[in-house]
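I hope you will forgive my troubling you with a question about protein structure. I am sending you one protein, given as its amino acid sequence and as whole-number tokens for its backbone shapes. Thank you for your consideration; the sequence and its tokens are set out here:
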Amino acid sequence: MGRHHAEKSRGDSGHSSKYYSEHKSNHDRIKSNRHKDRELKHHKRNKYESDSDSDDSTEKQRRRDLKERDEFADRLKKKDKEKTRNVAQPSGSEKRVYEEAAKRLKLEAEDRSKIIPKLRIESRQKYLKKRTEDKVAELEADIIDDEYLFQEQELTEKEYKEREHKKTLFQLAKEHEKARELEKVQRYHMPDAKKDQADEKYVEVDEREKVPHYEQQKWEEEQMSSAVFRFGARDKAEKNRERGQEYELVLDDEIEFIQALRMPGTRTDREDDDKPKLTETEEKKFSLQETRRSLPIFPFRNDLIQAIKDHQVLIIEGETGSGKTTQIPQYLYEGGFTHNSKKIGCTQPRRVAAMSVAARVAQEMGVKLGNEVGYSIRFEDCTSERTVIKYMTDGTLHREFLSEPDLQSYSVMIIDEAHERTLHTDILFGLVKDITRFRPDLKLLISSATLDAQKFSDFFDEAPIFRIPGI
């Protein structure tokens, strides 16, 4: 019985241990599954957070790049503006101009307060001097009129004394003027007790005596006059003038050589003399207009303007010297393409070409360079607010894309000398092609001097070609 009980107890303990081990394994499995689920959720959450963090960092990086790009563009434009010399407008910023104007006004007010009292004294002195001369002349005229109108026997004693008094005053005034002139003459004076003291009164010398070596020249003139033999009365000229004999006697045996050598002309009509003669400016303007009419592009002026109005992009082909560069912008200006403050731009591959062509067009239009017609190159800007035709280099137009990417201020853009195919010109082709797609009001003209204009037409979506014959 004890053995049976021991076996039973051993069997029960084995069963319980087996149940316990199974229960423990199930518990561990559940625990491991929960841990896996927790780790999976944590991994998903970390993955989502990492994705959002990466998106935020990408957005921050993009905004930082845009900010750096705008700052670089602003620095570049500011640097170019500082280095660019504006020819048509006065140099200096508006703030500096205002400060200088205020400074000048302040100095002017201070100077006025100091100078006005001195000017009043000088004005009074000049007025007195002029009044003295006027009064002396008036006194002289009064004496002459009195002697001419009234004779001595018609005067009373009082009137006679008054006339004598006037004559005495007039004589004293004349002697006073002569005494003043005598004071200016340099002469020797006997020394007196005050020789060590400086002269209190300064007397200005005569203008003739200020000349260098005046004394020597005067002595030479006196010696030469004394050595010359003279005859006749000294007052001969005055007596002849009184008698009306102002000219010398003309002898009959004199020959008029000018009349003897005079030859008759062969011209009979005088019609050209009756016509008004043109001035030098009018002749120059007339010759410029004649030169414009003689260019090969002139007969196609109306057809060219109509073609530009009908097509947004136009390829213009013409030989060198046909007048493409100088005449097309003028035709567009005369055709009304600059209304609403719009401009006509024309690019040149070289700086010298842009400057010389702008000067020529300004001369033909009769305007000052920098007003209606101007140019813009690197480090030099010769334009103003009134400029409607602007010549520039290709690089200058690249810089304008920074401040005005859509070229809103231009109604027509001409890419001249496109056949040279420089690097800047090829870059411009891509830029202006994109602009014409979202700006239908912008006219684009590609000017070329070669027969290979079909390539440009193919690049600009089969644009039409306008050909101009040569000279």
Q: What stands out?
A: Residues 1-13 have pLDDT under 50 and may be disordered. Residues 102-150+160-179 form one domain.
